[in-house]
Amino acid sequence: MCGEVSVRSRLDFNRTIKLAKTIVPATQWLQFIVSLRDSPIFRAAAARIRSPLFPAYLCSMQLKSFTFGPFYENTYVLWDETRECVIIDPGCYTDEEEDELRDFIRDNGLAPVRLLNTHAHVDHVFGNPFVAKEWNLLPEMHREDLRVLHSFPQVCMLYGLNGKEQPEPEKFLDEGQKITFGKTEMDIFFTPGHSPGSICFYNAKEKILLGGDVLFQGSIGRTDLPGGDFETLMKSIRGKVFQLPPDVRVYSGHGPQTTIGEEKRSNPFVGEG
Fold first, then answer.
1. Tens digits of residue pLDDT in 88-114
2. Looking at per-residue confidence, does 28 or 50 come out higher?
């Protein structure tokens, strides 16, 4: 992932490049550039310096997570070098949390282009009205979770929570479709069980899975809520999620990130170890 580069680091890096160009023949210089492509310093510089030496495609997709709301839900912002971004499962519940999300997007010069929901449980859609109002975006989710979304007022009342009126989805997502923004593309997996319309977003290039509440570090999504089903969730995890490479990083709806390999080895609910 691309990181921050200080002004001093950029100046030092530029001097190194200029020195290398004076002493390395053209063909070797080309090989030298290619060998640097995946180094952290070069990728970070590529994101910050507009020069032919730093092609934009060398910068990978970036991800920022926030933990919001009374259920400690993970909200994600993903973007690439175009600065277009998607907001996934905005759980911001308070004015302060809304400010935190807005400030991050503004301070990093990002342009939100899509609002995505892995599912429609209250903790994952608390911030949908805010995002809709702030950036004129409507949610995109699986059709099977529409009835879950429509139960939002009743669930908030049950838990004694305040919730704003939810915007209706602009688009329904399903497996086989692609999520695109900027120069980034993600696959959609239909993974019901935790909710009837749970979906995951997968970027094969970066080996990242945005898994919602399907799989956690050392646990799985609960299945005792309306529309949940344990056997269906097991089928979703084993038949789809666990088919991904072991080094794929899983960013869940709650708790820390994990990997497919770690959960296959040690998850007490669904692991194969």
1. 999 999 999 999 999 999 999 999 999
2. 28
Nearest CA to 59 out of 76, 82, 78 is that of 82
Angle between helices 7-23 and 40-48 (to 10 degrees): 110
Residue 60 pLDDT: 80
Encoding tokens for residue 206? 């970066």
Strand pairing partners for 180?
A: 185
Quick one: the chain helix, strand, coil %, rounded to 5? 35, 20, 40
Residue bearing tokens 């995946």: 38
Report the distance separating Cα 221 and Cα 254, nearest Å: 10
Query: CA angle, 254 as apex, 250 and 260 as ends, to 5°?
Result: 20
Q: Which amino acid is at 167?
A: P
Residue 136 burial class via C-beta count within 10 angstroms: exposed 0-12, middle 13-18, buried 19 and up: exposed
Report the greatest alpha carbon distance in the chain: 71
What does pLDDT average to over the chain?
Answer: 86
Burial class (CB in 10 A: 0-12, 13-18, 19+), 177: middle
Determine which helix (DSSP H) or strand (DSSP E) holds 62, and give its type and residue range.
strand 62-68
Burial class (CB in 10 A: 0-12, 13-18, 19+), 79: buried
Q: Give the residue ranges of DSSP H helices in the chain.
A: 7-23, 26-36, 40-48, 95-107, 122-125, 128-135, 146-150, 152-159, 230-239, 260-266
Q: Tell me the two tokens of residue 3.
A: 């990181």
What's the angle, vertex CA 13, arms to CA 7 and CA 18, rounded to 5?
Answer: 125
Over range 161-175, report the average pLDDT.
Answer: 97
- The mean per-residue pLDDT over the stretch 152-174 comes to 97
